[in-house]
Amino acid sequence: MKKILVTGGLGYIGSHTVVELQAADYDVVVIDNLNNSKQSVKNRIEEISGQSFELCIGDVNDSEMLKSLFIKHAFEGVIHFAAHKAVGESVENPILYYQNNISGLISVLSTMEKFKVSNLVFSSSCTVYGAAADLPVTENTVIQQAESPYGTTKILGEDIINDFAKHKAFKSILLRYFNPVGAHPSAKIGELPLGIPNNLIPFVTQTAAGIRNELTVFGDDYSTEDGTCVRDYIHVVDLAKAHVKALSYCDEMHLKVDVFNVGTGKGNSVLEVINTFEKVNGLKLNYRIGPRRGGDIEQIYADTTKVNDLLGWSAQYGIADMMKHAWAWQQELE
Ligand code: WQD
Asked: How close is the Cα of 9 to the center of ligand 1, in Å?
């Protein structure tokens, strides 16, 4: 069995990816500092997969700890999720984001080099495109100045990996996620609510659960069909499966580094999401239209030709499934 290190493997996308890796017969080791997760997520993952895995509670910035893992295990590859990911927090505290996200990546790369581990799947984001002029965005769409330090850490991360791979026996796949939402159909894992949600879907489900009083739709005066912003929402299980495909593609690809948009290729507006949520779950959501949120782009959605053709992957779940699974997870949380 091929052994893979998953950094941040107890996190939202990480935990769903561990489930899919185990289903694909990979032997998984997770390192997670529990900064944005809980140790109990490990048991939930194992309940779903029926397989155990080794968990190292630690930080990828701890090079000694990383080294001890690479001495103990002959890894065939690494999937690197461990990073801070809250856009608003990154604006308030840029140093925390540069320190954690950039130094963490460098620590992983230098350890991989030391132990001659060559395959890395990197968690990047559509945020690198900023407000793209032409839609849908392809992987050749120009990368714009990031709207937040979080976005800058993704652009820098991609550049660091490209520079590192140039003269090394090393391959990497950069996955540019669109908007990950939803939860595992078993409702055993999902996005853990830590503080007031920044993102739309946790706010929707917490409002529906009565935890939040009212959802504010940030602006309905955009030049979109219904005036609200459009995003490419992708089910977290579909996103997880894309990582398994990327890992196996690493071995066969001729390039040192390649990049893929991982979205559904479909855009949905905020109001469409709300209406779908209400319809599939048979409930009424308490929301109002408020002012725009600073930094929001009007619309973005992916051209998924490359990931469909080269990785042989496409999203299987639609927005209705995402809303159904998101609500089922929220109800489990209460
Ligand atoms: C989606 C839409 C809001 C909350 C960010 C990061 C991106 C990725 C996903 C990490 C927007 C609207 C939201 C609310 C609202 N994160 N909204 N009321 O901003 O597209 O992307 O999260 O990788 O990198 O940039 O996601 O869910 O915050 O917002 O109307 O209470 O929902 O205005 O149009 P976003 P989001």
From this structure: 23
Q: What is the pLDDT of residues 163-185, one digit of tens each?
A: 999 989 999 999 999 999 999 99
Long-range contacts of 279-286 (CB under 8 A, 24+ apart): 279/320, 280/320, 280/323, 280/324, 280/327, 281/208, 281/323, 281/324, 281/327, 283/208, 285/204, 285/207, 285/208, 285/215, 286/207, 286/213, 286/214, 286/215
Cα 173 to its chain centre, rounded Å, is 14
Q: Can you give the pLDDT at residue 194?
A: 83
Catalytic residue numbers read 150
Domains and CATH numbers, the chain: 3-181+235-263 (3.40.50.720)
Mean pLDDT of the residues in the chain: 97
Task: Please tell me if the CB atom of residue 229 comes closer than 6 angstroms to any atom of ligand 1.
Answer: yes
What is d(CA 265, CA 305) in angstroms, rounded to the nearest whole number? 9
Q: For residue 27, what are its two tokens?
A: 């032997």
Which is the closest atom of ligand 1 to the Cα of 127? 24
DSSP letter assigned to residue 264: -
Instruction: Enter the pTM of the model.
Output: 0.98
